[in-house]
């Protein structure tokens, strides 16, 4: 006996990964429905060895379906999540719409699995921002051992975080660089992503930070501990898939780098690749398609009494979005619905 599962946004990067991961992890599916907007209606998507035809999100009846993984953006989520929730289908939403709602649990299963029991306030569970998910997986085991006071994080985020068009843009700009048209040669494109880095993701806020940076602060506080002080600089880099983060941590208590490495090695969802030699660390290219959050460059920060630096890399379409959503579905099934 398994679950009747819906994937809404099945033709997007994250929606397709959700289907891949549901199949890879052999999630107990009795029946699956894949939904898309009218403009993508009928598009075929793959689920394991099956090919499924997308149905119309606008007319779909969620009644009798156990859970719906949403990857449709905040605007569409606002329209369809309440409808699904009201029909008794638990929504696991990848957009930012509900993340900061006190009646909606924001969950990274390796970090705060107990929060799943709060799903029934709105019948909605929120998935965190991709740059937050991998970071809190790394921070939580260290916080449990030495209580984190402050985090300074710089991110190096791949273009797939902002969708399929951004992947095409990087590809086209890179090609244009080697085969410049007259127009391209004449103009200098300072804000191109190809061969560049851009310190701007999402919109600017009044205090000069960006909403992406604000999300990392707000979500870390909600998922781990509101007392943690965090400041972030989120940067877009010319990488197709895989977010990287340089994380500086100040603890209440001293934590030796070797003990930190041992703790991380034993922590759920983490793979430590950390040798002080050429290639003794992980790069984003190596994380693509993997479930793990990779940690390298673990070392004391000697400028602080209780400081540590780490390098954190993960597939932003997987742990940063689709995998975390499927893990929440597994948690919901195991702890609450208990059908599978
Ligand atoms: C990005 N975190 O990387 C944002 C949304 N996925 O663009």
Q: Mind explaining what this structure looks like?
A:
It holds the Pfam family Semialdhyde_dhC. Residues 4-119 form the Semialdehyde dehydrogenase NAD-binding domain. One of its GO terms (molecular function) is NAD binding. Substrate binds at residues 157, 236. Its EC number is 1.2.1.11. Helix 1 (13-24) crosses helix 9 (318-337) and helix 3 packs across helix 9. The chain has helices spanning 13-24, 73-86, 130-146, 164-178, 182-186, 211-223, 257-266, 284-287, 318-337; strands at residues 3-8, 29-36, 44-47, 50-53, 55-56, 67-70, 90-93, 124-126, 148-157, 229-236, 243-251, 270-272, 293-300, 307-314. It has nine helices and 14 strands. The relative contact order is 0.16. It folds into two domains: 3-127 and 321-336, 3-Layer(aba) Sandwich (Rossmann fold); 131-158 and 197-314, Dihydrodipicolinate Reductase, domain 2, CATH 3.30.360.10. The radius of gyration is 20 Å and the shape is globular. The longest helix is centred in the last third of the chain and has 20 residues, at 318-337. Helices cover 32% and strands 24% of the residues. The protein is α/β, with parallel strands linked by helices and 340 residues long. The chain starts with a strand and ends with a helix. The strands form three sheets. A six-stranded parallel beta sheet has the order 5-2-1-6-7-8, sandwiched between helices. The protein binds 3-amino-D-alanine. 3-amino-D-alanine (2RA) is lined by residues 129-131, 157, 161-162, 201, 212.
């Amino acid at each position: 006996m398994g679950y009747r599962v819906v994937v809404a946004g099945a033709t997007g990067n994250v929606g397709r990964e959700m289907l891949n991961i549901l199949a890879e992890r052999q999630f107990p599916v009795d029946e699956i429905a894949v939904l898309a907007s009218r403009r993508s209606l009928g598009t075929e998507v793959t689920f394991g060895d099956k090919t499924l035809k997308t149905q119309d999100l606008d007319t779909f009846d969620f009644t009798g379906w156990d859970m719906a993984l949403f990857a449709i953006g905040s605007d569409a989520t606002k329209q369809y999540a309440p409808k699904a929730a009201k029909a008794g289908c638990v929504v696991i939403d990848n957009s930012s719409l509900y993340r900061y709602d006190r009646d909606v649990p924001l969950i990274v299963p390796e970090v705060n699995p107990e929060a799943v029991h709060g799903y029934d306030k709105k019948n909605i569970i929120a998935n965190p921002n991709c740059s937050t998910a991998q970071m809190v997986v790394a921070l939580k085991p260290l916080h449990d051992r030495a209580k984190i006071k402050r985090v300074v994080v710089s991110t190096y985020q791949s273009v797939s975080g902002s969708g399929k068009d951004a992947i095409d843009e990087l590809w086209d700009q890179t090609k244009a660089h080697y085969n410049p048209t007259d127009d391209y040669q004449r103009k200098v494109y300072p804000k191109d992503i190809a061969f560049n880095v851009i310190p701007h993701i999402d919109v600017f806020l009044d205090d000069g930070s960006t909403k992406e940076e604000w999300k990392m602060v707000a979500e870390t506080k909600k998922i781990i501990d509101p007392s943690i002080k965090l400041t972030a600089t989120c940067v877009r880099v010319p990488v197709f898939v895989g977010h990287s983060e340089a994380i500086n941590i100040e603890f209440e208590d001293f934590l030796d780098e070797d003990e930190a490495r041992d703790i991380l090695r034993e922590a759920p969802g983490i793979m430590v690749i950390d040798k002080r030699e050429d290639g003794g660390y992980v790069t984003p290219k190596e994380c693509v398609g993997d479930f793990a959050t990779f940690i390298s460059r673990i070392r004391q920060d000697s400028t602080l009494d209780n400081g540590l630096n780490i390098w954190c890399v993960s597939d932003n379409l997987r742990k940063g979005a689709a995998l975390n959503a499927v893990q929440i579905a597994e948690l919901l099934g195991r702890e609450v619905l208990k059908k599978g």
